[in-house]
Amino acid sequence: MSIIDFFAWIVLIVLVLSTVAVIVFLAMLPGMIAKKRNHPWAQAVTVGGWVTLFLGLALWPLVLIWAYVDVPRPSKSEVAS
Length: 81
Description:
mainly alpha; rod-shaped
């Protein structure tokens, strides 16, 4: 094997590892956003982000939108009733 072959293997390994890192970061992103924004269902958003990882990130935009949507909390009068 020549130097070019070793360089090609190194480039291939770096590309594969960086692709995996980006995909894992994208799976973690909705959960991190939901926790930062104190979303009432932050844990569900986190699970949704990881589930979309196994679905090929097909529903990932919906989970990302869900991380930004704040669910209105019941008012004090509704809770007291």
